[in-house]
Amino acid sequence: MPTMEVDGKKITWEGRKMILQACLDQGVTLPHYCYHQGLSIVASCRICLVEVETPNPKDPSQLMKIPKLVPACQTPAADGMKVHSKSPKAISNQKAVMEFLLINHPLDCPVCDQAGECYLQDYSYQYGRAESRFEEDKAKKPKKDIGPHVLLYSDRCIMCTRCVRFTREISGTGELAVFGRGFREEIDVFQGRALDNPLSGNVVDICPVGALLDKDFLFTQRVWFLQQTPSISPFTSGGENIFIEHTQGRVYRIKPRFNKDINQWWISDDVRYGWKFIHQNRLRTPLSRRPGAAVEPTWDQAIGRLEQIFKKAVTETGPGSIALVFSPFDATEEMFLAAKWIRGLDPQAWLTLNPPPIVGQDQVFKNPSTGAVNYVLRAEKAPNRRGAEKVLAYFGGHTCTLTELGTKIKAGQMAAALVIADPFAQHDAWLGELMSGLENLAVLSTRPDGLVERAAVSLPVCTWAEKDGVFENHAGRIQPFQKAIAPLEGTRSAGEVFWDLLSETGVYSAATVRATMAQAGLSEYAEITMPRRGKQVELMQFAEL
Ligand code: SF4
Ligand code: FES
Asked: Quick check: CB of 159 below 6 Å from ligand 1?
Protein backbone atom coordinates (compact mmCIF):
# COMPACT_ATOMS: atom_id res chain seq x y z
CA MET A 1 0.00 0.00 0.00
CA PRO A 2 1.47 3.41 -0.94
CA THR A 3 2.58 5.58 1.98
CA MET A 4 3.39 9.28 2.33
CA GLU A 5 4.35 11.45 5.27
CA VAL A 6 2.18 14.46 6.10
CA ASP A 7 3.63 16.73 8.81
CA GLY A 8 5.50 13.69 10.17
CA LYS A 9 2.46 11.35 10.14
CA LYS A 10 2.31 8.27 7.93
CA ILE A 11 -0.69 8.25 5.59
CA THR A 12 -1.67 5.25 3.48
CA TRP A 13 -4.35 4.97 0.81
CA GLU A 14 -5.58 2.77 -1.98
CA GLY A 15 -6.09 3.62 -5.64
CA ARG A 16 -5.69 7.15 -6.96
CA LYS A 17 -6.29 9.82 -4.33
CA MET A 18 -5.45 13.47 -3.94
CA ILE A 19 -3.23 14.41 -0.99
CA LEU A 20 -6.13 16.12 0.82
CA GLN A 21 -8.55 13.22 0.38
CA ALA A 22 -5.97 10.66 1.49
CA CYS A 23 -5.42 12.76 4.64
CA LEU A 24 -9.15 13.25 5.36
CA ASP A 25 -9.74 9.50 4.97
CA GLN A 26 -7.20 8.89 7.74
CA GLY A 27 -8.61 11.58 10.02
CA VAL A 28 -5.84 14.08 9.30
CA THR A 29 -7.28 17.51 8.53
CA LEU A 30 -5.73 20.07 6.23
CA PRO A 31 -7.53 23.42 5.79
CA HIS A 32 -9.86 23.50 2.79
CA TYR A 33 -12.83 25.50 1.55
CA CYS A 34 -13.61 24.78 -2.08
CA TYR A 35 -12.89 21.03 -1.95
CA HIS A 36 -15.81 18.68 -1.28
CA GLN A 37 -15.50 14.98 -1.92
CA GLY A 38 -18.85 14.86 -3.68
CA LEU A 39 -18.05 17.66 -6.13
CA SER A 40 -15.53 18.30 -8.90
CA ILE A 41 -12.18 19.80 -7.90
CA VAL A 42 -11.57 23.46 -8.80
CA ALA A 43 -8.68 24.34 -6.43
CA SER A 44 -9.77 27.97 -6.31
CA CYS A 45 -9.64 28.96 -2.64
CA ARG A 46 -5.88 28.17 -2.22
CA ILE A 47 -6.06 27.61 1.55
CA CYS A 48 -4.93 24.00 1.16
CA LEU A 49 -1.58 24.82 -0.48
CA VAL A 50 1.25 22.68 0.91
CA GLU A 51 4.95 22.18 0.37
CA VAL A 52 5.74 18.84 -1.22
CA GLU A 53 8.88 16.75 -1.52
CA THR A 54 8.46 13.97 -4.03
CA PRO A 55 10.75 11.05 -5.03
CA ASN A 56 13.12 11.92 -7.88
CA PRO A 57 12.05 9.83 -10.92
CA LYS A 58 15.72 9.27 -11.80
CA ASP A 59 16.69 8.23 -8.28
CA PRO A 60 13.63 7.39 -6.13
CA SER A 61 15.83 7.26 -2.99
CA GLN A 62 16.27 11.04 -3.31
CA LEU A 63 13.48 13.53 -2.62
CA MET A 64 13.14 16.70 -4.66
CA LYS A 65 11.22 19.71 -3.44
CA ILE A 66 8.54 21.11 -5.75
CA PRO A 67 9.57 24.77 -5.94
CA LYS A 68 6.05 26.21 -5.56
CA LEU A 69 3.31 25.42 -3.07
CA VAL A 70 0.78 23.00 -4.57
CA PRO A 71 -2.95 22.55 -3.83
CA ALA A 72 -3.37 19.43 -1.66
CA CYS A 73 -6.90 19.02 -3.01
CA GLN A 74 -5.72 18.71 -6.62
CA THR A 75 -2.30 17.05 -6.33
CA PRO A 76 -2.28 13.24 -6.50
CA ALA A 77 -0.70 11.52 -3.51
CA ALA A 78 2.40 9.49 -4.43
CA ASP A 79 4.32 6.78 -2.64
CA GLY A 80 7.28 8.17 -0.67
CA MET A 81 6.05 11.78 -0.77
CA LYS A 82 6.63 14.19 2.11
CA VAL A 83 3.97 16.87 2.60
CA HIS A 84 4.37 19.93 4.82
CA SER A 85 1.31 21.94 5.78
CA LYS A 86 2.98 23.55 8.79
CA SER A 87 6.17 24.81 7.13
CA PRO A 88 6.78 28.61 7.25
CA LYS A 89 5.90 28.89 3.55
CA ALA A 90 2.59 26.97 3.91
CA ILE A 91 1.63 28.88 7.09
CA SER A 92 2.40 32.19 5.41
CA ASN A 93 0.02 31.21 2.56
CA GLN A 94 -2.73 30.17 5.00
CA LYS A 95 -2.46 33.52 6.79
CA ALA A 96 -2.49 35.42 3.49
CA VAL A 97 -5.60 33.56 2.25
CA MET A 98 -7.40 34.15 5.55
CA GLU A 99 -6.51 37.82 5.56
CA PHE A 100 -7.71 38.16 1.98
CA LEU A 101 -11.02 36.39 2.70
CA LEU A 102 -11.67 38.49 5.78
CA ILE A 103 -11.13 41.80 3.97
CA ASN A 104 -14.76 42.05 2.97
CA HIS A 105 -16.32 39.49 5.30
CA PRO A 106 -18.55 41.10 7.92
CA LEU A 107 -17.59 40.40 11.55
CA ASP A 108 -21.12 39.37 12.48
CA CYS A 109 -20.48 35.96 14.04
CA PRO A 110 -22.65 36.72 17.10
CA VAL A 111 -25.75 37.00 14.90
CA CYS A 112 -24.76 34.49 12.21
CA ASP A 113 -26.58 31.14 12.17
CA GLN A 114 -23.40 29.39 11.01
CA ALA A 115 -21.40 30.40 14.09
CA GLY A 116 -20.12 27.23 15.73
CA GLU A 117 -19.99 25.27 12.47
CA CYS A 118 -18.26 27.84 10.25
CA TYR A 119 -14.99 27.05 8.50
CA LEU A 120 -14.06 30.73 8.27
CA GLN A 121 -14.56 31.26 11.99
CA ASP A 122 -12.56 28.17 12.94
CA TYR A 123 -9.78 28.66 10.42
CA SER A 124 -9.37 32.27 11.46
CA TYR A 125 -8.57 30.97 14.96
CA GLN A 126 -6.32 28.20 13.67
CA TYR A 127 -4.62 29.78 10.67
CA GLY A 128 -5.50 33.48 10.61
CA ARG A 129 -3.92 36.71 11.86
CA ALA A 130 -5.05 38.32 15.08
CA GLU A 131 -5.61 41.73 13.48
CA SER A 132 -6.78 43.02 10.12
CA ARG A 133 -4.56 45.47 8.25
CA PHE A 134 -7.40 46.49 5.95
CA GLU A 135 -8.37 50.11 6.52
CA GLU A 136 -10.80 50.77 3.64
CA ASP A 137 -14.56 50.33 3.77
CA LYS A 138 -15.77 46.75 3.34
CA ALA A 139 -17.75 46.00 0.15
CA LYS A 140 -21.45 45.84 0.97
CA LYS A 141 -23.49 43.12 -0.68
CA PRO A 142 -27.18 42.31 -0.39
CA LYS A 143 -29.13 39.61 1.45
CA LYS A 144 -31.43 37.74 -0.90
CA ASP A 145 -34.29 35.32 -0.68
CA ILE A 146 -33.26 32.89 -3.41
CA GLY A 147 -35.68 30.01 -2.93
CA PRO A 148 -38.36 28.45 -0.75
CA HIS A 149 -35.83 27.14 1.75
CA VAL A 150 -32.64 29.15 1.32
CA LEU A 151 -31.47 32.69 2.08
CA LEU A 152 -28.27 34.12 0.58
CA TYR A 153 -26.17 36.55 2.64
CA SER A 154 -23.87 37.63 -0.20
CA ASP A 155 -21.36 39.56 1.91
CA ARG A 156 -20.48 36.41 3.88
CA CYS A 157 -19.69 34.42 0.72
CA ILE A 158 -16.06 33.38 0.15
CA MET A 159 -16.66 32.36 -3.49
CA CYS A 160 -15.72 28.72 -3.02
CA THR A 161 -18.39 27.83 -5.66
CA ARG A 162 -19.42 24.62 -3.87
CA CYS A 163 -23.07 25.68 -4.20
CA VAL A 164 -22.74 26.43 -7.91
CA ARG A 165 -21.10 23.06 -8.54
CA PHE A 166 -23.80 21.33 -6.51
CA THR A 167 -26.59 22.70 -8.71
CA ARG A 168 -24.63 21.77 -11.84
CA GLU A 169 -23.25 18.38 -10.85
CA ILE A 170 -25.63 16.93 -8.25
CA SER A 171 -29.14 18.36 -8.68
CA GLY A 172 -28.43 19.06 -12.38
CA THR A 173 -30.68 22.11 -12.19
CA GLY A 174 -28.02 24.86 -12.53
CA GLU A 175 -29.93 27.67 -10.82
CA LEU A 176 -26.81 29.25 -9.28
CA ALA A 177 -23.87 30.98 -10.96
CA VAL A 178 -21.07 33.47 -10.28
CA PHE A 179 -21.88 36.99 -11.50
CA GLY A 180 -19.50 40.01 -11.69
CA ARG A 181 -15.73 40.22 -11.29
CA GLY A 182 -13.18 41.17 -8.65
CA PHE A 183 -14.59 42.29 -5.33
CA ARG A 184 -18.01 42.70 -7.01
CA GLU A 185 -18.14 38.97 -7.72
CA GLU A 186 -21.32 37.43 -6.31
CA ILE A 187 -23.23 34.16 -6.23
CA ASP A 188 -26.80 34.56 -7.41
CA VAL A 189 -29.68 32.78 -9.10
CA PHE A 190 -30.37 33.54 -12.76
CA GLN A 191 -32.93 36.27 -13.31
CA GLY A 192 -36.48 35.03 -12.87
CA ARG A 193 -35.39 31.71 -11.38
CA ALA A 194 -35.40 30.42 -7.82
CA LEU A 195 -33.33 27.78 -6.08
CA ASP A 196 -36.27 25.42 -5.81
CA ASN A 197 -35.06 21.97 -6.83
CA PRO A 198 -35.98 18.97 -4.60
CA LEU A 199 -32.42 18.84 -3.20
CA SER A 200 -32.03 22.59 -2.58
CA GLY A 201 -31.38 22.39 1.17
CA ASN A 202 -28.05 20.61 0.59
CA VAL A 203 -26.39 23.86 -0.49
CA VAL A 204 -26.77 25.08 3.10
CA ASP A 205 -24.87 22.02 4.37
CA ILE A 206 -21.98 22.41 1.96
CA CYS A 207 -21.61 26.19 2.24
CA PRO A 208 -18.51 26.47 4.47
CA VAL A 209 -19.60 29.85 5.85
CA GLY A 210 -22.91 31.51 6.74
CA ALA A 211 -23.69 32.74 3.23
CA LEU A 212 -26.41 30.19 2.49
CA LEU A 213 -28.79 29.73 5.38
CA ASP A 214 -31.77 27.52 6.01
CA LYS A 215 -34.94 29.59 6.48
CA ASP A 216 -36.45 26.83 8.54
CA PHE A 217 -33.61 26.79 11.09
CA LEU A 218 -32.82 30.52 10.99
CA PHE A 219 -32.38 31.99 14.50
CA THR A 220 -34.07 29.02 16.19
CA GLN A 221 -31.11 27.51 18.06
CA ARG A 222 -27.34 27.91 18.48
CA VAL A 223 -25.67 24.88 16.99
CA TRP A 224 -23.39 24.19 19.96
CA PHE A 225 -26.43 23.28 22.05
CA LEU A 226 -27.57 20.63 19.56
CA GLN A 227 -27.06 16.92 20.10
CA GLN A 228 -26.91 14.61 17.10
CA THR A 229 -28.61 11.23 16.99
CA PRO A 230 -27.99 8.94 14.02
CA SER A 231 -31.26 7.91 12.40
CA ILE A 232 -32.97 6.77 9.21
CA SER A 233 -35.40 8.89 7.24
CA PRO A 234 -39.03 7.88 7.84
CA PHE A 235 -40.28 9.80 4.81
CA THR A 236 -39.33 7.63 1.83
CA SER A 237 -38.40 4.05 1.05
CA GLY A 238 -34.85 5.17 0.19
CA GLY A 239 -33.52 4.60 3.72
CA GLU A 240 -31.57 7.88 3.73
CA ASN A 241 -29.11 8.10 6.62
CA ILE A 242 -29.69 11.21 8.69
CA PHE A 243 -28.82 12.93 11.93
CA ILE A 244 -31.66 14.21 14.08
CA GLU A 245 -30.35 17.36 15.75
CA HIS A 246 -32.14 18.21 18.96
CA THR A 247 -31.85 19.66 22.42
CA GLN A 248 -34.01 19.57 25.55
CA GLY A 249 -36.54 17.18 24.02
CA ARG A 250 -37.11 19.26 20.90
CA VAL A 251 -35.96 18.53 17.36
CA TYR A 252 -34.53 21.53 15.48
CA ARG A 253 -33.29 20.17 12.20
CA ILE A 254 -32.37 17.11 10.18
CA LYS A 255 -29.02 16.79 8.44
CA PRO A 256 -27.68 14.15 6.05
CA ARG A 257 -25.39 11.42 7.40
CA PHE A 258 -22.91 10.08 4.88
CA ASN A 259 -23.66 6.65 3.46
CA LYS A 260 -21.74 5.82 0.32
CA ASP A 261 -24.27 3.24 -0.90
CA ILE A 262 -27.51 5.06 -0.17
CA ASN A 263 -27.61 8.84 -0.03
CA GLN A 264 -23.90 9.79 -0.08
CA TRP A 265 -23.79 13.34 1.45
CA TRP A 266 -27.28 14.39 0.37
CA ILE A 267 -30.93 14.32 1.39
CA SER A 268 -34.02 15.66 -0.33
CA ASP A 269 -36.01 18.59 1.01
CA ASP A 270 -38.86 16.15 1.79
CA VAL A 271 -36.58 14.36 4.21
CA ARG A 272 -34.99 17.54 5.59
CA TYR A 273 -38.19 19.43 6.38
CA GLY A 274 -40.73 16.66 7.01
CA TRP A 275 -40.06 16.26 10.75
CA LYS A 276 -42.52 18.88 12.11
CA PHE A 277 -45.17 16.26 12.82
CA ILE A 278 -43.07 15.15 15.83
CA HIS A 279 -44.22 18.25 17.72
CA GLN A 280 -47.56 19.01 16.10
CA ASN A 281 -51.10 17.73 16.57
CA ARG A 282 -50.20 14.78 18.79
CA LEU A 283 -52.51 12.36 20.52
CA ARG A 284 -51.49 12.54 24.18
CA THR A 285 -53.86 10.29 26.14
CA PRO A 286 -55.55 6.93 25.61
CA LEU A 287 -59.21 7.27 24.63
CA SER A 288 -62.11 4.89 25.08
CA ARG A 289 -65.51 5.38 23.50
CA ARG A 290 -67.54 2.62 25.16
CA PRO A 291 -70.76 4.07 26.59
CA GLY A 292 -70.33 4.50 30.30
CA ALA A 293 -66.55 3.93 30.28
CA ALA A 294 -63.94 6.56 31.08
CA VAL A 295 -63.35 8.80 28.06
CA GLU A 296 -59.70 9.12 29.00
CA PRO A 297 -58.76 5.84 30.69
CA THR A 298 -55.33 5.22 32.19
CA TRP A 299 -52.85 3.30 30.09
CA ASP A 300 -53.52 0.11 32.08
CA GLN A 301 -57.28 0.49 31.66
CA ALA A 302 -56.93 1.17 27.92
CA ILE A 303 -54.66 -1.84 27.37
CA GLY A 304 -57.07 -3.98 29.40
CA ARG A 305 -59.98 -2.76 27.28
CA LEU A 306 -58.14 -3.48 24.03
CA GLU A 307 -57.34 -7.02 25.19
CA GLN A 308 -60.91 -7.55 26.34
CA ILE A 309 -62.35 -6.43 22.96
CA PHE A 310 -60.21 -8.85 20.98
CA LYS A 311 -60.61 -11.82 23.35
CA LYS A 312 -64.39 -11.31 23.36
CA ALA A 313 -64.47 -11.08 19.56
CA VAL A 314 -62.63 -14.40 19.19
CA THR A 315 -64.81 -16.10 21.82
CA GLU A 316 -68.11 -14.82 20.45
CA THR A 317 -67.48 -14.74 16.69
CA GLY A 318 -64.95 -17.53 16.33
CA PRO A 319 -61.57 -17.80 14.64
CA GLY A 320 -60.69 -15.56 11.68
CA SER A 321 -62.84 -12.66 12.88
CA ILE A 322 -60.11 -10.32 14.12
CA ALA A 323 -57.50 -8.43 12.08
CA LEU A 324 -54.34 -6.39 12.43
CA VAL A 325 -53.38 -3.61 9.99
CA PHE A 326 -49.64 -2.84 9.89
CA SER A 327 -48.24 0.56 9.05
CA PRO A 328 -45.24 0.80 6.69
CA PHE A 329 -44.05 3.63 8.98
CA ASP A 330 -43.61 1.33 11.98
CA ALA A 331 -40.41 -0.44 13.08
CA THR A 332 -40.09 -4.10 12.09
CA GLU A 333 -39.65 -5.20 15.72
CA GLU A 334 -43.00 -3.62 16.62
CA MET A 335 -44.80 -5.33 13.76
CA PHE A 336 -43.27 -8.65 14.81
CA LEU A 337 -44.59 -8.23 18.38
CA ALA A 338 -48.00 -7.06 17.09
CA ALA A 339 -48.37 -10.12 14.84
CA LYS A 340 -47.17 -12.42 17.63
CA TRP A 341 -49.79 -11.00 19.99
CA ILE A 342 -52.77 -11.25 17.64
CA ARG A 343 -51.81 -14.70 16.36
CA GLY A 344 -51.48 -15.75 20.01
CA LEU A 345 -55.12 -14.77 20.51
CA ASP A 346 -56.27 -16.34 17.27
CA PRO A 347 -53.94 -18.31 14.94
CA GLN A 348 -56.37 -17.47 12.12
CA ALA A 349 -56.34 -13.70 12.72
CA TRP A 350 -55.99 -11.69 9.51
CA LEU A 351 -52.82 -9.69 8.90
CA THR A 352 -52.63 -6.90 6.36
CA LEU A 353 -50.58 -3.86 5.43
CA ASN A 354 -51.79 -0.31 4.95
CA PRO A 355 -50.06 0.29 1.57
CA PRO A 356 -47.37 2.98 1.45
CA PRO A 357 -48.31 6.23 -0.31
CA ILE A 358 -46.84 6.55 -3.81
CA VAL A 359 -46.26 10.08 -5.12
CA GLY A 360 -45.38 10.26 -8.83
CA GLN A 361 -42.32 8.32 -9.91
CA ASP A 362 -38.77 7.89 -8.63
CA GLN A 363 -36.72 10.98 -9.50
CA VAL A 364 -33.13 10.15 -10.44
CA PHE A 365 -30.48 12.89 -10.13
CA LYS A 366 -27.47 12.20 -12.31
CA ASN A 367 -24.23 14.05 -12.93
CA PRO A 368 -24.82 15.61 -16.39
CA SER A 369 -21.16 15.05 -17.41
CA THR A 370 -20.44 11.58 -16.08
CA GLY A 371 -23.95 10.11 -15.89
CA ALA A 372 -23.22 8.85 -12.36
CA VAL A 373 -26.31 8.60 -10.16
CA ASN A 374 -26.04 11.11 -7.30
CA TYR A 375 -29.36 10.60 -5.59
CA VAL A 376 -32.72 8.91 -6.10
CA LEU A 377 -35.80 10.54 -4.63
CA ARG A 378 -38.17 7.62 -4.08
CA ALA A 379 -41.84 7.85 -5.04
CA GLU A 380 -42.75 5.45 -2.24
CA LYS A 381 -43.25 7.71 0.78
CA ALA A 382 -42.87 5.22 3.65
CA PRO A 383 -39.72 3.72 5.17
CA ASN A 384 -40.59 0.12 5.95
CA ARG A 385 -42.88 -1.65 3.46
CA ARG A 386 -40.22 -4.35 3.08
CA GLY A 387 -40.06 -4.90 6.86
CA ALA A 388 -43.85 -5.24 7.02
CA GLU A 389 -43.86 -7.68 4.12
CA LYS A 390 -41.16 -9.75 5.80
CA VAL A 391 -43.23 -10.03 9.00
CA LEU A 392 -46.34 -10.89 6.97
CA ALA A 393 -44.43 -13.61 5.11
CA TYR A 394 -42.96 -14.96 8.36
CA PHE A 395 -46.34 -15.34 10.07
CA GLY A 396 -48.09 -16.41 6.84
CA GLY A 397 -51.55 -17.99 7.06
CA HIS A 398 -54.42 -15.55 6.91
CA THR A 399 -52.98 -12.49 5.15
CA CYS A 400 -54.91 -10.22 2.80
CA THR A 401 -54.89 -6.79 1.22
CA LEU A 402 -56.54 -3.87 2.92
CA THR A 403 -59.26 -3.79 0.25
CA GLU A 404 -60.00 -7.49 0.91
CA LEU A 405 -60.22 -6.74 4.61
CA GLY A 406 -62.68 -3.94 3.82
CA THR A 407 -64.82 -6.41 1.87
CA LYS A 408 -64.81 -8.83 4.81
CA ILE A 409 -65.85 -6.03 7.16
CA LYS A 410 -68.69 -5.02 4.83
CA ALA A 411 -69.79 -8.66 4.62
CA GLY A 412 -69.99 -8.74 8.45
CA GLN A 413 -67.24 -11.39 8.77
CA MET A 414 -65.00 -9.32 11.06
CA ALA A 415 -65.64 -8.61 14.73
CA ALA A 416 -62.62 -6.45 15.62
CA ALA A 417 -59.57 -4.87 13.98
CA LEU A 418 -56.49 -3.14 15.31
CA VAL A 419 -55.00 -0.46 13.05
CA ILE A 420 -51.50 0.91 13.55
CA ALA A 421 -52.09 4.30 11.93
CA ASP A 422 -49.63 6.22 9.75
CA PRO A 423 -48.20 9.42 11.20
CA PHE A 424 -49.47 11.29 8.13
CA ALA A 425 -52.98 11.65 6.78
CA GLN A 426 -52.53 10.11 3.33
CA HIS A 427 -54.97 7.20 3.61
CA ASP A 428 -57.27 8.52 6.31
CA ALA A 429 -60.43 8.85 4.25
CA TRP A 430 -60.00 5.46 2.58
CA LEU A 431 -59.17 3.66 5.83
CA GLY A 432 -62.10 5.35 7.57
CA GLU A 433 -64.45 4.16 4.88
CA LEU A 434 -63.10 0.60 4.96
CA MET A 435 -63.44 0.42 8.75
CA SER A 436 -66.82 2.18 8.88
CA GLY A 437 -68.88 -0.99 9.34
CA LEU A 438 -66.73 -2.27 12.21
CA GLU A 439 -68.01 -1.97 15.74
CA ASN A 440 -64.77 -2.84 17.52
CA LEU A 441 -62.00 -0.76 16.08
CA ALA A 442 -58.79 -0.19 18.04
CA VAL A 443 -56.14 2.29 16.90
CA LEU A 444 -52.53 3.02 17.78
CA SER A 445 -51.86 6.52 16.51
CA THR A 446 -49.55 9.50 16.92
CA ARG A 447 -52.30 12.01 16.10
CA PRO A 448 -56.00 12.52 16.83
CA ASP A 449 -57.22 11.60 13.36
CA GLY A 450 -60.54 10.44 11.90
CA LEU A 451 -59.84 6.80 12.82
CA VAL A 452 -59.25 7.75 16.45
CA GLU A 453 -62.62 9.48 16.49
CA ARG A 454 -64.48 6.32 15.55
CA ALA A 455 -62.31 3.82 17.48
CA ALA A 456 -63.59 1.99 20.55
CA VAL A 457 -60.12 2.37 22.04
CA SER A 458 -57.16 4.47 20.91
CA LEU A 459 -53.63 4.48 22.27
CA PRO A 460 -51.23 7.41 21.74
CA VAL A 461 -47.91 6.15 20.40
CA CYS A 462 -44.61 7.88 19.73
CA THR A 463 -42.95 8.88 16.49
CA TRP A 464 -39.79 7.31 15.07
CA ALA A 465 -37.67 10.05 16.69
CA GLU A 466 -38.80 8.88 20.13
CA LYS A 467 -37.92 5.17 19.86
CA ASP A 468 -35.38 2.60 18.62
CA GLY A 469 -35.97 0.17 15.80
CA VAL A 470 -35.08 -0.89 12.28
CA PHE A 471 -36.43 0.02 8.85
CA GLU A 472 -35.81 -1.99 5.69
CA ASN A 473 -35.42 0.17 2.61
CA HIS A 474 -36.70 -0.46 -0.94
CA ALA A 475 -33.61 -2.55 -1.73
CA GLY A 476 -33.90 -4.77 1.36
CA ARG A 477 -31.23 -3.02 3.39
CA ILE A 478 -32.04 -3.27 7.11
CA GLN A 479 -30.88 -0.19 9.02
CA PRO A 480 -31.29 0.69 12.70
CA PHE A 481 -32.37 4.06 14.04
CA GLN A 482 -32.03 5.43 17.55
CA LYS A 483 -34.27 7.25 19.97
CA ALA A 484 -33.33 10.93 19.73
CA ILE A 485 -35.71 12.51 22.23
CA ALA A 486 -37.84 11.21 25.10
CA PRO A 487 -41.40 10.19 24.08
CA LEU A 488 -43.98 12.93 24.42
CA GLU A 489 -45.53 12.73 27.88
CA GLY A 490 -48.46 10.31 27.82
CA THR A 491 -47.25 8.34 24.78
CA ARG A 492 -45.55 4.96 24.48
CA SER A 493 -43.98 3.15 21.55
CA ALA A 494 -46.09 0.56 19.75
CA GLY A 495 -43.43 -1.96 20.79
CA GLU A 496 -44.08 -1.25 24.48
CA VAL A 497 -47.83 -1.66 23.95
CA PHE A 498 -47.45 -5.12 22.42
CA TRP A 499 -44.77 -6.05 24.99
CA ASP A 500 -47.39 -5.36 27.69
CA LEU A 501 -50.12 -7.20 25.79
CA LEU A 502 -47.83 -10.21 25.44
CA SER A 503 -47.09 -10.01 29.21
CA GLU A 504 -43.37 -10.13 28.50
CA THR A 505 -41.16 -9.56 31.52
CA GLY A 506 -38.58 -6.80 31.85
CA VAL A 507 -38.40 -3.48 30.05
CA TYR A 508 -39.20 -3.40 26.32
CA SER A 509 -36.15 -3.04 24.09
CA ALA A 510 -35.93 -3.25 20.32
CA ALA A 511 -32.63 -5.15 20.66
CA THR A 512 -34.30 -7.90 22.74
CA VAL A 513 -37.04 -8.26 20.13
CA ARG A 514 -34.45 -8.50 17.35
CA ALA A 515 -32.69 -11.27 19.27
CA THR A 516 -36.03 -13.11 19.56
CA MET A 517 -36.65 -12.60 15.83
CA ALA A 518 -33.20 -14.00 15.04
CA GLN A 519 -33.88 -17.04 17.22
CA ALA A 520 -37.21 -17.50 15.44
CA GLY A 521 -35.37 -17.85 12.12
CA LEU A 522 -35.16 -14.23 10.93
CA SER A 523 -31.37 -14.46 11.12
CA GLU A 524 -30.71 -11.12 9.38
CA TYR A 525 -31.74 -9.37 12.62
CA ALA A 526 -29.05 -11.06 14.72
CA GLU A 527 -26.13 -8.74 14.03
CA ILE A 528 -27.75 -5.33 13.92
CA THR A 529 -26.04 -2.77 16.13
CA MET A 530 -26.93 0.88 16.57
CA PRO A 531 -24.62 3.46 14.98
CA ARG A 532 -22.41 5.52 17.28
CA ARG A 533 -24.33 8.37 18.88
CA GLY A 534 -22.95 11.86 18.10
CA LYS A 535 -22.10 14.17 20.99
CA GLN A 536 -22.31 17.61 19.53
CA VAL A 537 -22.31 19.17 16.08
CA GLU A 538 -18.72 19.03 14.94
CA LEU A 539 -16.88 21.27 12.54
CA MET A 540 -16.77 20.06 8.96
CA GLN A 541 -18.78 16.94 9.63
CA PHE A 542 -20.36 17.06 6.19
CA ALA A 543 -17.19 17.66 4.20
CA GLU A 544 -15.15 14.98 5.86
CA LEU A 545 -17.75 12.27 6.07
S1 SF4 B 1 -22.53 30.87 -1.07
FE2 SF4 B 1 -21.34 29.50 0.25
S3 SF4 B 1 -21.08 27.64 -0.98
FE4 SF4 B 1 -21.71 29.27 -2.39
S5 SF4 B 1 -19.79 30.13 -3.15
FE6 SF4 B 1 -20.38 31.37 -1.38
S7 SF4 B 1 -19.31 30.44 0.33
FE8 SF4 B 1 -19.27 28.95 -1.31
S1 FES C 1 -9.42 23.28 -1.00
FE2 FES C 1 -7.69 23.23 -2.27
S3 FES C 1 -7.73 25.07 -3.32
FE4 FES C 1 -9.60 25.10 -2.17
From this structure: yes
Ligand closest in space to the Cα of 163: 1
User: For the domain bounded by 106-219, which CATH number is listed?
Assistant: 3.30.70.20
The CA distance from 514 to 502, in Å, is 16
Helix pair angle (332-345, 494-501), 10° resolution: 30
Pair 341, 502: CB distance under 8 Å = yes
Closest atom of ligand 1 to 166 CA is 3
Contact yes or no for 213/270 (Cβ under 8 A): no
- List pLDDT tens digits, range 223-234: 999 999 999 999
Could you say which ligand is closest to the alpha carbon of residue 157? 1
E strands, 200-298, in order: 212-214, 227-232, 241-247, 250-256, 287-288
The pLDDT of residue 133: 87
Whole-number Å distance, alpha carbon 164 to ligand 1 midpoint, is 8
Instruction: Tell whether ligand 1 has an atom less than 6 A from the beta carbon of residue 158.
Output: yes
CA nearest to 187, candidates 230, 213, 222, 158: 158
Q: What is the pLDDT of residue 454?
A: 86
What pLDDT score was predicted for residue 537?
44
pLDDT for the residue numbered 294: 61
| Global pTM value | 0.93
CATH topology of domain 287-525: Rossmann fold (3.40.50)
CB of residue 69 inside a 6 A radius of ligand 2: no
CA 31 to ligand 2: nearest atom: 1
**Confidence at residue 125, expressed as pLDDT on a 0 to 100 scale:** 85
Q: Which class would CATH give 3-97?
A: alpha beta
Instruction: Report how far ligand 2's centroid is from the alpha carbon of 160 (Å).
Output: 8
* Cβ contact 286:459 at 8 Å: yes
Verify whether ligand 2 is closer than 6 Å to residue 101 (CB atom): no
Closest CA to ligand 2's atom 3: 43
The closest-lying atom of ligand 1 relative to the alpha carbon of residue 162 is 3
Per-residue model confidence (pLDDT) at position 293: 63
Q: Which amino acid is at 194?
A: A
Question: What is the 98 CA–ligand 2 centroid distance (Å)?
Answer: 13
Given this model, what pLDDT does residue 292 score? 64
- For 25, counting Cβ atoms within 10 Å of its Cβ (0-12 exposed, 13-18 middle, 19+ buried), the class is middle
Q: What is the dihedral of CA 162, 168, 170, 176, to 10 degrees?
A: 60
| Low-confidence stretches of the chain (pLDDT beneath 70) | 291-294, 533-545
| Residue 123, ligand 2, Cβ within 6 A | no
CB of 146 shorter than 6 A to ligand 1: no
Provide the H-helix boundaries in 183-331. Answer: 202-206, 269-273, 299-317
The rounded Å distance from CA 31 to ligand 2 centre is: 8
**CA-closest candidate to residue 428, choices 307, 281, 290, 273:** 281
97 in ligand 2 pocket by Cβ < 6 Å? Answer: no
Cα 511 to Cα 232, 362, 390, 481, 529: the distances in Å are 17, 33, 18, 11, 8
What are the boundaries of each domain within the chain?
3-97, 106-219, 287-525
Phi, psi at residue 324, to the nearest 5°? -130, 130
